[in-house]
Every structure is written in structure tokens, then in C-alpha cells.
Predict the structure.
Amino acid sequence: MAQSYLTKFAYQTLQTSKGLAGLAHKGISSKLMEILAPSAVPNLEPLSRELLLELRRSVEALEKLDWLEAEEGIYPKAQLFEAPWLEWIGRYPLVWLDLPSTWERRKSNTVHDIPEEIDKDQYPSYYLQNFHHQTDGYLSDHSAGLYDLQVEILFNGTADAMRRRVLAPLKEGLENFRLRKTSCLKILDIGTGTGRTLKQIRRANPKVELLGIDLSSAYLRQANRTLNSGNYPLTQLIRGNAEQLPFSNESMQAVTCVYLLHELPKKARQNVLNECWRVIEPGGVLIIADSIQMEDSPNYNVVLNNFEKVFHEPYYRDYINDDIETRLYESGFENVTNKSFFMTKVWIAQKCQIQDD
Ligand SMILES: C[S@@+](CC[C@H](N)C(=O)[O-])C[C@H]1O[C@@H](n2cnc3c(N)ncnc32)[C@H](O)[C@@H]1O
């Protein structure tokens, strides 16, 4: 009992520290930008005191649930503390060193500053951009090395807590296959990036076969370092387009898709959902986690508007007004539900139900 209180206290302290570190980083970097690159400063709407308090309460609710689900055994408590801390400390100075080129791109509205050696024919045109004004877009080891840290800072240390919201519905979804050997089940994560979501999934489902697909070789190299060490089954990482998944029909029992949809144009978004439906076995589940949308909380609209002003997110406005539920039904999914956790909305969609005998 005492140990559990202590662990909970350690978790809360860690989250508070990450939150403060994120706020401090953003505060100092904004001040620096005002001094060194004033023309890059975006024209943001101020957040009211009430909104800041509401955001704070929303983070607290997220962290309370994160702890509760660990206590319930959906994932181990150790996972709440897991991060490549030493690696992140080593890379943190690079985040600062990268800021001036980010400001420069924002100032000059340069959004196609992609490494020259990249074979552009290998990618859809919407992908060849500096999402978030990121150096090299998604197309270099430099970008992949900074990504996780940048996302942690953006969400004030709550990114993994938000990603973990896919774990409970995933476990519940896989229950439909409880009569099968766990090692025969497959979960595919699309737009897997550096593998943070797969890492969360693996700790919660150590025996299930995991696969990840992404367009970026550099991000997959980083994911490979993160995932394929230790005594777990090998995670298969495949470079490819989620609009044309290189897997046969009905070959996956579950698919997850975290923070991908908001980076896709409308047509690609629908193609991806159609492909998810195709590769999922009947009885299986698709779980999507992405930004909350305009309809979710009118109070948060100012935060969503500001996000779009700070980061180059060419399809974000279309996404936050998109009806993902209807898209899921159009793809063939059933029983679509959704719920929001701080800045993340999670959709659960089933591919027809298996009837219990
Ligand atoms: C915002 S990141 C999210 C990464 C990861 N899921 C996470 O939770 O951090 C979006 C990822 O989607 C990938 N991506 C974008 N368009 C894609 C596509 N059409 N097919 C496969 N991956 C894509 C990018 O390379 C990037 O790694």
C-alpha cells in the first residue's frame, strides 16, 4: 500500500515537472523569438484565465485516468516512467540549436525545404513539406532524433499519457480473439513514426506480434532502435504509404493510428481508413487517436486556432472540421464511438462483430 502511494506520488511529481519544463521551454523560446526573429512571431489569440484553468483540469483528469488504468493492470506502472531520459537530455541542446532555422522557415513561409537527396517519386506530394516547420520535414535522422522531445515539449509532458488512451480499447478489442494464442495476434500501427505508440502497445501486450508502417525511413530507423532491443518478439517496421497498405485482406486483428489523420488531405484520410478496414479481420478493431476537433469543446477552439498559426499544418483546418465518424462508417466500420482526453480524441471502430456462441 505504502509503495503504491509512493509510486503514485513519483508519477505525479514526474508529470508536474515535465509540465513545468515544457511551459518554461515554450516561454523562454517565445521570448527569444520576439528578440531575435520578431517577424516570425505568430499573431496568437490570448488564452483566458478560465480556459487555462479548464486545460489544467483536463490534464489532471488525463493523468488520473493514466494512473488508474495502470493500477487496473491494463499496462504496467513502470511504463508511466519509461522514456529514453539520457538520450533526450543529450539531444535537448539540439532542439534549441534548431530553433533559428524553424523561425526562418516560418518567417519566409518556406514549407518545401526538403533534403535534396530525397527521391521525391517515392512519396505522395502532400508529404514533401516541413510539417511543424520541422527541419527536413520527416525526411532525415536529424528530424527523427528531435521529434519525440519536441512532441513532449508541445504537450507539456502528456504525449505518452495521451497515446496510452489507445491501450484499454485495444485490450478490449482483442478480447474477440481470446480463444486464439496471443502470439498469433497482430497489431499494426500506421504512421508509426519513431515508434512511441508501438512501445506503449508492446509493454501492455508483450506477446502480440507488432507491425509498424511509415513513409519515413529515418523515423523507422529511430523506431527500430527504440523497439528492437531486449527479449521481445521482433517488431516489423515497413516503409510504405498507409493509403496502400502492403498487407493482405483481413490479416490484422487490430490497427492503431496515432496523430496521422490531421497530416493528411481529405482524400488520403479516407483512403487510409478504407485500407484499415480492408486489412482488419472481422471482429477486429481500429483505434484512432488524433487532435481534438472543433465540435468537441467550443472553449478549446482558440487553442486549435493558435496551434495552426504556430505550426505548419496544411491539412489541420480541414481535419478539425472533418466528420471522421461518417468516414469510418463509409469505410465499412460499425459501432463507432469516441472520447476526448485533454488535446486528444480517440475513436474506436469495429469491423463487424463476432457472435459469441
Ligand atoms: C505526427 S507523426 C505521428 C507519429 C506517431 N504515430 C506518434 O504517435 O508520434 C505522423 C507520422 O505519419 C507519417 N506519415 C504521414 N503520412 C503518411 C502516409 N501517407 N503513410 C504512412 N505514414 C505517413 C509521418 O512520416 C510521421 O511519422
Notes: The first strand starts at residue 186 and ends at 190. The chain has twelve helices and seven strands.
